[in-house]
Write a structure and sequence with these properties.
Blueprint (H helix, E strand, L loop, with lengths): L1 E5 L3 H13 L3 E6 L2 H10 L4 E5 L1 E2 L2 E2 L4 H7 L4 E6 L4 H9 L4 E4 L4 H12 L15 H16 L3 H11 L4 H8 L3 H15 L4 H10 L24
Parallel strand pairs: 1-2, 1-3, 3-6, 6-7
Antiparallel strand pairs: 4-5
Helix pairs in contact: 1-10, 7-9, 7-10, 8-9
């Protein structure tokens, strides 16, 4: 299956592409705005497009019919941080293939993609149900537990990873040697149980430790690393 990802959050989009590639999907392109999405659909054959619902202050809900018409043979699967009845109704009306709640485990996304590939609907009524309160609390508690293991320097490093900084840029912004930066990065990966920088960055965003928009530490409010220039 050839997939196109369109999400404004660079780290999330790249992490998702890496994950889906590992599950055997072919990623045609990663875009960060619906206008870029249309350009790709008009020149590349795409089986499924994973499309975020929100881009800044704008929603794609009103553009679903236009986006579908750009490539009628491409199924659209919406990515959202909150599934409700209104969104599901709009998705069905526009002939959308599926809806995925970003807060759910990745197995849910794979389940929806499998349904779409089999010609089934990836929009199910129970997708409109909110996450149980105990699940939300568990995510928050897990995030604070992970944060407690990190030193202030390591938190600063993790912020840099979310902003997409490489080792050299991170070292310059922190005023340290590249070797020291690599050491801090490895410590962060070890403490988070991550196998890659992208996985660490994605975990930090998922657990609400760091803002994906700014790359700033937002968890708790204590001991927040100062974002450095450069």
């Amino acid at each position: 299956m050839r997939l196109l990802i369109c999400d404004q959050h660079v780290v999330f989009a790249e992490s998702l592409a890496h994950l889906l590639t590992a599950h055997g999907y072919e990623i045609v392109a990663i875009t960060h705005h619906p206008d870029q999405l249309i350009d790709v659909l008009r020149r590349e054959p795409v089986d499924v497009c994973l499309l975020d619902v929100i881009f800044g202050a704008d929603s794609v809900v009103d553009r679903l019919t236009t986006l579908r018409s750009a490539s009628p043979d491409t199924q659209l699967v919406l990515l959202t941080a909150g599934v409700d009845g209104a969104l599901l109704g709009a998705a069905r009306a526009a002939g959308i293939g599926g809806v995925v709640d970003k807060r759910q485990p990745v197995t849910e996304m794979l389940h929806v993609l499998a349904n779409v590939a089999a010609g089934k609907s990836g929009i199910e009524p129970d997708r409109a149900a909110p996450l149980p309160v105990n699940t939300v609390r568990r995510h928050a508690n897990d995030g604070m537990r992970l944060a407690s293991f990190l030193t202030s320097r390591e938190r600063e490093v993790l912020c840099g990873l979310v902003r997409g900084e490489d080792t050299n840029r991170l070292a310059r912004s922190m005023g340290i040697a590249s070797a020291t930066a690599r050491c801090h990065i490895q410590n962060v990966l070890t403490k988070l149980g991550a196998h890659s920088r992208l996985e660490a960055a994605t975990s930090a965003v998922r657990y609400g430790l760091i803002s994906p928009q700014t790359g700033d530490w937002v968890a708790g409010g204590k001991g927040n690393p100062t974002r450095r220039a450069g």
